[in-house]
Amino acid sequence: MDIDIVELSRLQFATTALYHFLFVPLTLGLSVIVAIMETVYVMTGRPIWRQMTKFWGMLFGINFALGVATGITMEFQFGMNWSYYSHYVGDIFGAPLAIEGLMAFFLEATFVGLFFFGWDKLSRVGHLVVAWLVAIGSNFSALWILIANGWMQNPVGAEFNPVTMRMEMTSFFDVMFNQVAQAKFVHTVSAGYVTASVFVLGVSAWYLLHGRHTELARRSIAVAASFGLAGALSVVVLGDESGYDAGENQKMKLAAIEAMWHTEPAPASFTLIGLPNQEERETKYAIHIPYVMGLIGTRSLDTPIQGIAELEAENAGRIRSGIIAYDALMTIRAEGPDTPEDVRATFEQHSDDLGYAFLLKRYIEDPRQASEAQIAQAAEDTVPHVWPIFWAFRIMVGLGFSFIAVMAYFFFMASFRGMRFPRWALRLAVIVIPAPWIAAEMGWIVAEYGRQPWTVDGILPTALSVSHLSVGTVAVTLAGFVLLYSALFVVEMSLMIKYIRKGPYQDVAETEAWTERRRQHRKIASDLNISPAE
Question: Mind spelling out the 3-state secondary structure of 54-101?
């Protein structure tokens, strides 16, 4: 396979995925924030909370529509650009995608319509149920997508069938409750909650700076700060869990994140900052924090984290083991039912390393004919480019801790200082609006770029997964996607800015009715000589 096609196909999928994820986290978080606001409205009956629900719900709807438009295209790419991947692992990967479409997406899409058009047709409680079903549907969509992605990171519950030459599912339970998938799900949705909270906080701060919609803005900040603080703390805790899972299942990724070129004595230190040099295999000007990486990666003080050089040597051994599996597989394919039992036993013994033999197909058609130099080159290919992963991880972590500080400050001011926010803090809230998106994109770079050279870790190399397309075809479609998605992004930003500038719609009749009811309650309380609360 021409490596240009591989790299171009990777670039196309990465571009569409990163564009799509501009919309996903805000959808995840806003759906829950809107449901919380409507819950307060139903409990209190105060019109301001209905106004807040409608306003933030409108912004959720705009973002939701663009997320759907960009997400559908991604699923079609599995058949268009990654046809062998779809053939090889479609039995496993396709199951959660199908469930996501049948259960989560239709649940979400159906109730989104009821949310926007059911205000005057449903009871308060009925509409509240719809709001929460929208939020649940949004999060279920993320769950099934991340189960599929988690299986690519840690392929459990499946085995290779030498007769069909495909991976086949052996346990849907193992696929669904894959520890990597579950950690990725809670980490990703928590990041979405932080994204939406920072967005609501920033827009509300902008209103306060301009003296507009102050009642809505102050209440929105109170909701966003408390929800966002919980989300930011969860992101850090669950990120630590993801680091531990990487130490268990993706040792090369963890070593690349740390730029750990050689195994260090336990417990390994964490490199706070430095300049990784992959050619010389050293990190210059590194500043280390003792023990931290050992605790993150192993949860112990006596377990070492393997370095890149040692893992590369180990992978060279797995490639040689995979060649034995490949040789047995070819015999099984040729002999069929008459294959000797010792050949089948040999294949079973080495089948876990078959994917490593496939790494050689980048250099030679028949892995059994590979030279030692080609085996060494294939082993070197198992080392991803370190500096993008190293820096993406540190940017993500640094921003994550900054969100905790921002949310904690606004939570304190909203809860204990009567919602009196200094102007510098409001300006800061506006400035940090884009930061959660940067952190989220960095997280996906770590997750996906760090998995290379695998599409399915240890099972199927990326170079074998692509469709047989021409460079021109992929280049033209890539340019088309970039132009289309850029146009959609401009449309989305224009609509969001338009409705933010316009501000919330105020239902004058309901507000007046609420005011009148409050006036009557006060009069009755005065006549009875009791407090209005009584």
Answer: HHHHHHHHHHHHHHHHHHHHHHHHHHHCCHHHHHHHHHHHHHHHHHHH
